[in-house]
Amino acid sequence: MSRIEKFISKFAIEFDYFFLKLLPTKKYSQKLHDAMKYSIKVGGKRLRPLFLIEISKIFNVKKIMAFRAAAAIELIHCYSLVHDDLPSMDDDSMRRGHPTCHIKYDEATAILVGDAFLTLAFEILSQEKTHPDAEIRCKLIHELSRSSGLSGMVGGQKLDLEAESKNLKLSEIMNLQKLKTGELFRFSCVAGSILAKKGLNDFENLENYAYKLGLAFQIQDDLLDVTGDESKTGKKLKKDLKRGKQTFVSFMGVKKAKESAEQLIEEALDIISKYGDDGENLKQITKIIINRSS
Ligand code: GRG
């Protein structure tokens, strides 16, 4: 394992300890509580929290504030995966190397796990511990709802479901992926600047960085779907291929897709070079996006 890989897996352990403690202790339903814990404990790379926290470090944001905003984005991500795996969506039985939530429990429980994660994310952002300034909390809530809702991930998911029966242009695939995947990365990348009360310049810079990162991440995901190893990704591969779904790889081929992802990462690195030495760790993490195998 490289230094940065060790750093990332150590981060995931520290983050998960904090993350699990944010789950409400009052158990209205033992089964729902267990299913929520299960969906978190099966793991995940925690990339969205990692980017949020590393960018927050550049702006000297208090650790507790960055961790709480990071928990909010990871809750949205976890909700989206639980719902995406449902029979009415992607119909998957394995995720992160374990049975999906609706297989382990049942469909109704999985729907409620997603709903509970989604709402808990906003509850966390609305609390004073996230930031003493109500205007900042409100801005975080605004940006997270934008990223996760109709003009973000939910909108992208619907376009993706409809894409199975359509012949999309490359620009349409890019737009779909920008919404479905890129928007959550957008929140991860701008949250630190909001918490630190930075101006529009940093916000837009980081937004631009996030879109490049998100696109490179999605291209790598498409590449892994074709060339990856199921024992490493922890999920079924070659699904897009079997369904005849258009992806960056089906459009450009493996070689061009790889080159595009590398180009996007170069451009992303260029954007954050303005943070100098403070952004060194972030640079290393940015490169991991296209070097990952899971
Ligand atoms: C159900 C509203 C709704 C949205 C679902 C996230 C999503 C939208 C669908 C999941 C399927 C998919 C391939 C999404 C693209 C983004 C992606 C590759 C998610 C997986 O993210 P990782 O690799 O997962 O960060 P881990 O398990 O490491 O957290």
What does the secondary structure layout of this molecule look like, with pairings?
Blueprint: H1 3-21, H2 30-41, H3 47-58, H4 63-84, E1 94-95, E2 98-99, H5 101-104, H6 107-126, H7 134-148, H8 153-163, H9 170-195, H10 200-227, H11 230-233, H12 239-243, H13 248-272, H14 280-291
Antiparallel strand pairs: 1-2
Helix pairs in contact: 2-6, 3-4, 3-9, 4-6, 4-9, 7-9, 8-9, 9-10, 10-13, 10-14, 13-14
This protein binds geranylgeranyl diphosphate.
What's the quick description here?
The protein has 294 residues and is mainly alpha-helical.
Strand order of the largest sheet: 1-2
The oligomeric state is single chain
The largest β sheet comes out as: 2 strands, antiparallel
Gap between N and C termini, in Å? 14 Å
What is the count of helical runs? Answer: 14
Residue share in β-strands:
under 5%
Fold and architecture overview:
It is a single chain. The chain is mostly helical and 294 residues long. Helix content is 73%, strand content 1%. It has 14 helices and 2 strands. The chain has helices spanning 3-21, 30-41, 47-58, 63-84, 101-104, 107-126, 134-148, 153-163, 170-195, 200-227, 230-233, 239-243, 248-272, 280-291, and strands spanning 94-95, 98-99. A two-stranded antiparallel ribbon has the order 1-2. β1 (94-95) and β2 (98-99) form a beta hairpin. α4 (63-84) packs antiparallel against α9 and α8 (153-163) runs antiparallel to α9. The longest helix has 28 residues, at 200-227. The chain is globular and about 50 Å long. The protein binds geranylgeranyl diphosphate (GRG). Residues 44-45, 47, 77, 80-81, 83-84, 89, 96, 153-154, 157, 180-181, 221 line the site of geranylgeranyl diphosphate.
